[in-house]
UniProtKB/TrEMBL annotation:
It comes from the Eukaryota. The lineage of its organism: Eukaryota, Metazoa, Ecdysozoa, Nematoda, Chromadorea. Signal peptide: none annotated. Pfam families: 7TM_GPCR_Str (PF10326). This is 7TM GPCR serpentine receptor class x (Srx) domain-containing protein. The chain crosses the membrane at residues 37-57, 77-101, 113-135. It comes from Caenorhabditis nigoni. The gene is Cnig_chr_V.g18403. PANTHER family: SEVEN TM RECEPTOR, SEVEN TM RECEPTOR-RELATED.
Length: 178
C-alpha cells in the first residue's frame, strides 16, 4: 500500500487477509476465517437454491388454474427473480471471493481492483434492466419509447437543411406518436 498508493495501511479501514507469516508458514487462524466465510456463502446459496426449486414446483402446480397470459406473466416474474439473484453473485460476490482466496496462492499480482468497485455500482442498474428486459410488457414499452425517440430525432435531423444555418423546427406531438 505504501509503495503503490503512498498510504499507510493503519490509516485506512479495510479487510486484509495475510495467509503466510514472515517465515512462510500458513496462518491457520486466517485459514479458519476464510473457511468460515466460505461456509457462510455456501449456506446462503444453498438456501437460495432450495427456495428457488421449491418455488418453481409450487408455482407450477398453482398456476395451472390461471389463464395462459397470467401463467406467462408468472413465469416471466420467476425468471426475473432468478436473474436478480444471479446478478449480485456475478457483480458482487464473485469479485469478493477472488479477493478472499487470492492471498493463499502467494502471487504477486497487480490487479485492477477498480473493476470490482465498478461492478458494485453496476449492480443496481442491472437489477432494473433485468426487469425491463425479461417482462414482455415492459420490454415492448421500452422498445416503443426507444423507436419514438429515434424516429423523432431522425425527423428533426432530416428537416435541417445541410447548406443553411440550422433553424429550430417545432413538430406537433402527432409526429412522434406515429
Amino acid at each position: 500500500m505504501i509503495q503503490k498508493f503512498s498510504l499507510d495501511f493503519s490509516d485506512i479501514s479495510g479487510f486484509a487477509l495475510v495467509a503466510y507469516d514472515t517465515n512462510g508458514f500458513i496462518r491457520w487462524r486466517n485459514v479458519c476465517c476464510t473457511i468460515n466465510m466460505t461456509f457462510i456463502m455456501m449456506f446462503q446459496y444453498s438456501i437460495i437454491l432450495y427456495c428457488a426449486v421449491r418455488m418453481y414446483f409450487e408455482m407450477e402446480s398453482k398456476v395451472q388454474i390461471l389463464s395462459p397470459s397470467l401463467r406467462n406473466l408468472h413465469r416471466q416474474f420467476y425468471k426475473t427473480l432468478l436473474l436478480q439473484v444471479v446478478t449480485p453473485t456475478v457483480t458482487l460476490f464473485a469479485p469478493v471471493s477472488v479477493l478472499i482466496y487470492l492471498p493463499f496462492f502467494d502471487l504477486q499480482l497487480d490487479l485492477p481492483f477498480g473493476i470490482s468497485t465498478s461492478a458494485l455500482g453496476l449492480y443496481p442498474a442491472l437489477d432494473a434492466l433485468i426487469v425491463m428486459y425479461v417482462v414482455q410488457d415492459y420490454r415492448e414499452a421500452m422498445n416503443n419509447t426507444f423507436k419514438r425517440v429515434i424516429n423523432g430525432l431522425h425527423i428533426l435531423i432530416s428537416s435541417v437543411d445541410v447548406g443553411m444555418t440550422p433553424t429550430a423546427t417545432f413538430r406537433s406531438p402527432a409526429v412522434f406518436n406515429s
